[in-house]
TrEMBL record, chain A:
This is Unannotated protein. It comes from freshwater metagenome.
UniProtKB/TrEMBL annotation, chain B:
This is Unannotated protein. It comes from freshwater metagenome.
From TrEMBL, chain C:
It holds the Pfam family DUF455. It comes from freshwater metagenome. InterPro entries: DUF455, Ferritin-like_SF. This is Unannotated protein.
């Protein structure tokens, strides 16, 4: 199946499409998504770190803003690590929706902040377990910001971080219960 | 209940402070003026060096120590008018020209690669000389007439000991090769010779004995 | 060691990557115009932003390197000017005190960065604070470092303190509150010294305040700070007043921020149009 990366050339950042495509192809194979078309549409106009993901039966569209692939030490330069993590995040979210028990999850734009943080924790935990280097504390902090700062919240984080498989129903319920206990 | 009319000794049995001291008001003011000059030079260079050292932990230590020595200079500045020097700037002078040469040499290292030299100058030469001069002063001044100086000396000495220990540990952490040890030793020797010529923070007699080097000894 | 150190010589270990304000402004990407403008009601750094954790982390790193430069600036004031002739002894004592305070702020920022999940040097260091603030005239330096730079710190710390309060982050709110107390003191030091030194020299005072205005505009970082919701942080008027800024001065800084924001938006439109055409 086809993997397309856009744009071909960049005006605002020094990114490399062929290089990005190689990383994406490797990741698609590793995550078992080499049987579906994937469009990786990089929004170079925005320096934000957002990643928009939409999924149909025939196509996964991952649209990261350029900040998500950037080397924060060298603005506008591409980071291999951040590119890998961003693509993995987008693909895992798409795979969850397609095949992982998240078909009934609301669209990305409809997710509450705690729901998005809980789902990100589940995704980033799996990326960490793929031996990709990332700062776990950053995701602890993100989860705490959305669910509260307490040992009980941290315990829920650990559960999601180390979870191999869950569903939207379980994850959203865990997030809602954590928020209500903290509040 | 204690008898309020019963006379008591003016000095409690455990209070063994003595009246005599080695320093007159004038001599005390001279020394205090030298201390203020020397502490001022120290806090100024520590402040200046902050931007020149790449080691983050050392950068932060220098910022902290910069203030401590500024505070010492302030304590001496405030003590001078109490010693009949109404124009503190008049006595805020180096003990002698040799001490100026010492400070010039100590403050010379600038490059980011010279942190060892910077720290050796301050923590292996300059601060040990503060400790000795202050200790001599503390142990020889009148324990009754000069109590305000003693109080300042005690506060300052506590800082000096802590800063010396901080600095010595930082130096030890930087000495990773025999060449580093040689660099540290050579710089220390160079500065110590200049300090020998100066005789200490308050000049010859800083620690009570005349340390005047024989003519030609340093050539 | 020489007097007056150029910004290029600030000593850093290999983890740091320094960039200039010109590098930053050359970035044509944006969160201010076009689609980004429509998709966000506010750019304020609050927990309500979807990217709040990442944005707070990046700002904390900015605070960390800013505190290093403030530490270096205060330290250089102790060294660069001759005591008594170019700068009063007591002014230098204040700068030494400020160096200690800034050293603690760096320590606090390091601990908070760990807490928030970022590493030393993870983001580029913009050296504009040292570059802009460290004038060769002590009065201008007071205006630049103590009033403009430390004034900016008041705005940023207030934003972060509120962020911590809203998110329920006990460390962030606690630490920012303490740092804020120090910054108010530093601005007050600057205001007091500026008044004292230029008491009989209105021309010099005027020059210093003009310099502060230039630095204040630079520190609005292309509109990051203003009363507009489009800016990441607001003018912290209450704490600024405690520090000795008058209402007129705060209004002036707010105006400079709006100017910087509008100029940046125009610049971005130009850059984006150049690409489209």
């Amino acid at each position: 199946m086809a993997l397309t990366v856009t744009p071909d050339t960049y005006n605002f950042v020094a990114f490399d499409t062929a290089y990005t495509a190689r990383i994406a192809e490797r990741m698609a194979t590793q995550l078992g998504l080499d049987d579906i078309d994937i469009l990786l549409a990089i929004n170079e106009n925005s320096s934000l770190t957002r990643i928009d993901v939409t999924v149909t039966d025939a196509l996964i569209t991952i649209a990261p803003h350029s900040g998500a692939l950037e080397d924060t030490r060298r603005p506008r330069q591409q980071s291999e690590l951040n590119t890998t993590i961003t693509i993995a995040r987008g693909m895992l979210r798409a795979r969850d929706r397609l095949r992982g028990g998240f078909a009934d999850a609301p669209a990305d734009a409809e997710l509450t902040l705690p729901q998005a943080a809980a789902w990100d924790t589940y995704i980033m935990g799996r990326i960490a377990h793929m031996d990709i280097v990332l700062n776990k504390q950053a995701w602890v902090y993100n989860f705490r910001n959305r669910h509260g700062f307490s040992d009980a919240v941290d315990a829920v984080f650990e559960k999601l971080w180390n979870c191999e498989s869950t569903t939207w129903a379980e994850l959203s319920s865990l997030s809602a219960n954590t928020v209500s206990v903290t509040a | 209940m204690a008898d309020p009319t019963k006379p008591r000794a003016s000095f409690a049995p455990w209070d063994r402070r003595e009246l005599p001291g080695s320093f007159s008001v004038e001599e005390t003011a001279r020394r205090v003026g030298n201390y203020k000059w020397a502490e001022t030079k120290l806090f100024e260079v520590l402040g200046g060096w902050i931007a020149t050292v790449p080691e983050l932990d050392i950068k932060l230590r220098l910022g902290t120590h910069c203030y401590k020595h500024a505070w010492h200079a302030e304590l001496w500045h405030k003590r001078l008018p109490e010693l009949r020097e109404m124009n503190p700037a008049r006595l805020t002078v180096p003990a002698n020209d040799a001490l100026v040469r010492f400070v010039d040499a100590m403050t010379e290292p600038e490059d980011a690669s010279l942190t060892i030299e910077k720290l050796v100058g301050v923590y292996r030469v300059y601060i040990p000389h503060f400790i000795s001069a202050y200790t001599y002063h503390l142990n020889n001044t009148s324990e009754i007439t000069d109590m305000p100086t003693i109080r300042s000396l005690k506060f300052i000495l506590q800082d000096e000991f802590e800063d010396w220990r901080d600095g010595e540990m930082l130096i030890q952490s930087l000495l990773e090769t025999p060449d580093h040890v040689d660099r540290a030793a050579a710089h220390q020797a160079k500065l110590e010779k200049l300090m020998l010529e100066a005789g200490g923070i308050a000049g010859h007699g800083s620690i009570g004995i005349n340390t005047q080097a024989p003519q030609g000894a340093l050539s | 060691m020489k007097k007056f150190m150029p910004v290029e010589e600030l000593a850093r270990d290999e983890r740091f990557n320094q960039i200039t304000q010109a590098d930053r402004m050359a970035d044509g990407r944006n969160a201010l115009i076009g689609e980004a403008e429509k998709s966000r009601k506010s750019n304020r750094l609050t927990p309500a932003r979807p990217d709040a954790s990442e944005a707070a982390r990046a700002l904390m790193h900015g605070i960390f390197v800013g505190e290093i430069q403030a530490l270096e600036g205060a330290g250089r004031t102790c060294w660069d000017f001759t005591t008594g002739e170019e700068a009063p002894f007591e002014l230098k004592l204040d700068m030494a005190r400020q160096a200690w305070d800034e050293a603690r702020h760096v320590e606090i920022s390091l601990k908070l960065s760990d807490w928030m999940g970022s590493e030393i040097g993870q983001y580029a260091e913009n050296t504009v604070l040292f570059q802009a603030a460290c004038s060769n005239d002590p009065v201008l330096r007071l205006a630049g470092v103590n009033r403009a730079l430390e004034g900016l710190a008041i705005d940023v710390f207030t934003t972060m303190k509120e962020f911590g309060e809203i998110a329920g982050d006990p460390y962030l709110e606690f630490c920012e509150d303490w740092m804020l107390a120090d910054e108010v003191t530093h601005v007050k030091m600057g205001s007091d010294w500026l008044r004292k030194i230029t008491e009989n020299d209105p021309e010099r005072r005027k020059k210093a305040l003009e310099f502060q205005g230039i630095v204040d505009k630079m520190f609005s970082y292309g509109g990051s700070r203003s009363d507009s919701e489009e800016s990441s942080f607001a003018i912290a008027r209450r704490f600024r007043e405690l520090a000795g800024f008058t209402e007129d001065e705060n209004d002036h800084i707010a105006d400079l921020g709006m100017q910087a924001l509008n100029e940046r938006k125009a610049q971005l439109r130009e850059k984006q149009a150049a690409v489209t055409n």
